Amino acid sequence: MARIVNLGQQVWTNYHQTAECNLKGRIELVNGDEENGRAHLKGVAETVLELLREARQYQIPVRPIGAGWSPSPINVVEDGWLVETLRLNRTYKLSAENLHADCDVDAESLLLVQAGATVDEVYESAEEIGRSLRTGGASNGQSFAGACATGTHGSVWQAGGIQDHVRAVQLVTPDRILWIEPEKGVLSDAFIAQTGSEIIRDDRIFAAAQLHVGAMGFVTAMLIETDPIYMVQNIQKAARIKREHIDWLCRGEFKRFSCEFGLHEEPYFQQLIMNPFDPFDKKSLLRFLYKRPYDPGIPPPPPGDMGAGYDALTLLGKAMAESDLFKAEILQLAMEQAYPDNRNVDDPPAIATWGHTTEEHAPIASLFNGSVTLDRSKLSEAFDLIIDSFRRGGGGTVVTLRFVRKAKGLLAPAHWPDNVVIDFDGPNVESSHQGYKKVVEALDDAGIAFTRHWGKTNNLDEHRVMRDYEQNFADWKWAQAQVMPDAADRQVFANDELVKLGLI
Ligand SMILES: Cc1cc2nc3c(=O)[nH]c(=O)nc-3n(C[C@H](O)[C@H](O)[C@H](O)COP(=O)(O)OP(=O)(O)OC[C@H]3O[C@@H](n4cnc5c(N)ncnc54)[C@H](O)[C@@H]3O)c2cc1C
Q1: DSSP strand pairing (230-239 vs 350-353)
Q2: Could you report the per-residue pLDDT of 93-146, keeping only the tens digit for each?
Q3: Which residues cross the membrane (predicted)?
Q4: What's the CATH architecture for 3-228+477-500?
Q5: Which string of DSSP letters, residue by residue, matches 255-274?
């Protein structure tokens, strides 16, 4: 069994201090000393099952959390138990005999990951066995389960979200320990039995569990699929782009865009950080990553060397939000100072493994994170509207464009064949909220469909979630009812935000 450490009744604030709650108990789960991976999974799941049963009996709401990084209040619970998972952070390799006869991948490409392993820990474990993740977010301190729960994504335009790696999920409800896979089995029945789980093989239930927003049960472990290890070459530069370049991106002409500003090849990843006050006269910050074969002779880069470099932007953005003077100039200064100036095409190549392209993030008091995801083919039509509305609302920080394919999971915000995600990251001040609200209203008024990130500030409610996800929402609710038919079980996972979203 796992160990339960009760840290007691307390006021708890999430990582970036955007939400807080009064807890009946803050509970930490720690692995027991079982001898192998299956036994660990079984021990943890049985401990969680007992905890959830007790919660149901005494009607105490439970909130499993990872790193507590989501700025939206999905990770807080009033008068409940907050259950921390970060010490459930082991990863395990598999062998061919562990696989189901229908499994379509080799054992080497699979990794069993406990829910609380951070994205960084998963990168490290994968690299140790010559493997790599395909995509991830801009930072790496989230737990793997927490990142999947909200559909965390980056800007690998041929991949969806981090949850796309998931091939099976171990999920605990107050009634059962479940192992959820697609209809085509991945792990053998014998292996799964040793994890103490009942098997559900169903495509719809699996797609619901890939992105569950913390409302489908307590995830204790996931099976993920990795790629052979590779490296990426990083180009980061400040450059003035023109309106027509937005049209290129809208049409998916990434190679053409790269030939203009980066290397003469198709980028694996590409991102633009723009100054909304003057997007075409002021320089944008461009970031390209190009895939390279793995070379063990290339040493890991110094910390931060390949990272996204958001911190300075956010800090300077805060100073700017409090002053109306020279906003565009101050923001531009902040943008360019925060960005490396030695990663251009003629500089010595900066190459590292995928896992080294992100970095930990220091907590920033009161951060605002909001985004909208739209069909990439609507980018040209929506771009000016978005920028103008954000600025008119007083939004005083950078706007980032990222590109992803259709992501896995019934509730994945990136649900068009190709998507553009427009992020508004900055200080948690009224002008950031107002700017974001104006963007949302303007898109609605123009009849341009969009979705929002579950883990960020989103102003969503049940009515809107139903409208945004239509049949996928109905299917997700059906799947949730298969896993937890009893309303009292679902109620264990209730918090204000999930109830508001219609997910509990
Ligand atoms: C600095 C920063 C950078 C970010 N960068 C990006 C980015 O590049 N791209 C992007 O898409 N997003 C990004 N985000 C958003 C972030 O990735 C998501 O909010 C993610 O969900 C946070 O993971 P977490 O482990 O902290 O989850 P938490 O915030 O702890 O939890 C998120 C949800 O999942 C549930 N949950 C967590 N663990 C479990 C479990 N074991 N079982 C059941 N439910 C569980 C929680 O209850 C909650 O509902 C960023 C956020 C910050 C603060």
Answers
A1: antiparallel
A2: 999 999 999 999 999 999 999 999 999 999 999 999 999 999 998 888 999 999
A3: none
A4: 2-Layer Sandwich (3.30)
A5: HHHHHHHS-SS--SEEEEEE
